[in-house]
Amino acid sequence: MTEYAWLLLLLPVAAASGWLAGRRGGERKGGARVSRLSNTYFRGLNYLLNEQQDKAIEVFLQIAAVDKDTVETQFALGHLFRRRGEVDRAIRLHQSLVARPGLSDEQKTRAVLALGEDYMRAGLLDRAETLFTDLVRVGVQAPQALKHLISIYQAERDWAKAIEHARQYESVSGEPMGRLVAQFHCELAEKARLGGQPEQAREHIFEAYAADSHCVRAGLVEGMLEQSLGNDAAAIRAYERVARHDIEFLPEILEPLLGCYERRGEMARARGFLMEMIEQYPGISPVLELARILQRDEGTRAALEFLAGQLRQRPSVRGEAAYIELSLKDPDNDPAATLRTLRHITEQLLVRTPGYRCQRCGFGTRAHHWQCPGCKSWGSVKPVHGAVTE
Ligand SMILES: [Zn+2]
């Protein structure tokens, strides 16, 4: 439920007041009572909207006292108690609602659901699980109860049950749950991998891909598993798949993947893959790895030329450090040329570094502003220490 959607729960109270007012028409006494009630109701609503929950509770307790039959007021109070963290009070209220005779089926279900939510809030997961499982069995409010059950099984790290209920939720609600199910299978795969059960781990990796064909985590677990079993070819496929599905994970797989290529002597494939990644990935990691391979296979000069060309397009401090390191190892090093390259890279880096930063919101700028362009506060933008901009 969104922040205020639950306020709609209270609307029937106001509507009932209006209906009574209409029906009683000329009856002065009844009309007065009703208008007092709906005035009280709107006062309570105002307190709620102003986040004055103490006063709201007071008002709704008054309404509940006058209007003992209004179940909706009880629901509203229960909700307020829980929101304020008074879970014990909410539990007592919802328990008495559940036990109350004469409730409609719909009201009874809502009361059970609310009680289950109280139990969850109180950390009484077993009790909550029992209530929600009953609701699912009866088939009412199943999607919401299933959703709660999924969170309970996640908290208990019972992944098999979490998968089962996520699938059930998917078929009841139509909402796709594949990405979540894939994560749960990865949890099981990881557990099997660490427990020395590779076949089980493979099964769960397969299931994870079946649930979400772009699951990055399944590829990572598969890569680690196959690598540890000495199946470098399978590990390479898994790691390459990770990078192609989500390039942001490239730094995570680069080192183990290159180890696999080297053990198999597939250096041409390694170069091809790194070139492909350099095209797509804005960071410096694949550039540094390719420079390392070039240095070993073609010599320091080739690596330096490649690195200098790349650093002109993507200046980076780590790249610059690698460039200096390589230059020191270069027997034919031309110091003046090296310094010119370094000066160019450093200038590029400085252009991108903000000289001033707002102390309040962190906004970085190259020029000084007395009023921060980010948070509009005055005098909060100050020079950054250590950034040489003069
Ligand atoms: Zn600011």
TrEMBL record:
Pfam families: TPR_16, TPR_7, Zn_ribbon_LapB. It is found in: Cell inner membrane. GO terms for cellular component: cytoplasmic side of plasma membrane. Residues 23-390 are cytoplasmic. Fe cation binds at residues 358, 361, 372, 375. The keyword Transmembrane applies. Keywords: Cell inner membrane, Cell membrane, Iron, Membrane, Metal-binding, Repeat, TPR repeat, Transmembrane, Transmembrane helix. Residues 356-383 form the LapB rubredoxin metal binding domain. This is Lipopolysaccharide assembly protein B. The lineage of its organism: Bacteria, Pseudomonadati, Pseudomonadota, Gammaproteobacteria, Lysobacterales.
